[in-house]
Amino acid sequence: MLTDPQRFIIEIIKYNEHKIKMISLITGGAGFIGSALVRNLLQDKENTVINVDNLSYSGNLGSIPAKLQHKNYIFEECDIVNKKNIFKVIDKYQPNVIFHLAAESHVDRSIKEPRAFIDSNILGTYNLLEASKKLCKKNASISGASFRFHHISTDEVFGDLELGEARFNEHSLYNPSSPYAASKAASDHLVRSWGRTYDIPYVITNCSNNYGPYQFPEKLIPHIITNAIKGIDLPVYGNGMQIRDWLYVDDHVEALKLVATKGQTYHTYVVGGNNEIQNIDVVKEICSYLDKIIKIKPNQISSFHELIKFVKDRPGHDKRYAINASKLTTELSWKPKENFTSGIKKTIDWYLQNTQWWENILSGSHEMGRIALDDNDQQ
Known about the structure:
3-stranded mixed sheet; 379 residues; single chain; 7-stranded parallel sheet; globular
């Protein structure tokens, strides 16, 4: 009887033998992490990349520069909640790998409008799994070691941690705190159950908080950067002592590729940046860097720190997230290239150099989703 390490080696050999041409279908490929993955994969012109996105409020095809697009890049505007349409797309392209990133992902929005999260994150995942089941039955040659359903999830499914408590790992118990986290937890369980019941080859990754270029401006870091550039208030929830493990998006993408191609099927990997920082310290670091590089500041302020404003805390706000990514590091030799200081400088520089990208978003019809920005919640 084969041991787990032996099975792992055989899977890698089989996968590489069958991997003649990589056909990657990425749901949510116009979103923040999805577009970073698309940009990365397009650097190899042998890859066929199918970008599937419904172009909801946070989807932006401007996140995929035209210079990267080549004949093997295809965009399909499709909502994964529409079962008929997503079945048609998957049957048309018959991918080797499905990177499932499409999701409603903002906690504040989930508190205000949870139904959209149930539809996209649970029903949408169900539709993709059913389409994958049909694909594997139709074409046995792409099933097994040569096909992967890679479900990208979040560390928020585990709830939060107390100070000093051991970091999340692959064996952490599920304890979601928000409608968003609960919907992602449900989707994780769906993927595992379809794998066990219908033999859908899957891998799951649960990541910590991402940041970097092209992030929609409602999230903490780009929201603080863009507000600071405009010289307006920098809202910080509660006392700002909440701790997050910050992961630079390009480091996350490298982990996703490794897990999809070399990770053990039917396994979970957690991905973190090893950067536990309080939210208030994130905001202060952004302010300090901007103070250093911007000599003439907006609205007659002498320091960007003057713009910090503490606002009413989010309901059920988790205290601390932190990831122990030792499994990923040991098995697949992954480690993040960016620490928070280097990553946040790259991120701020990008937003300063690409003002048109985020100004177009802010000047449009997008309703910003941070609860503390609503007038009734700032009192």
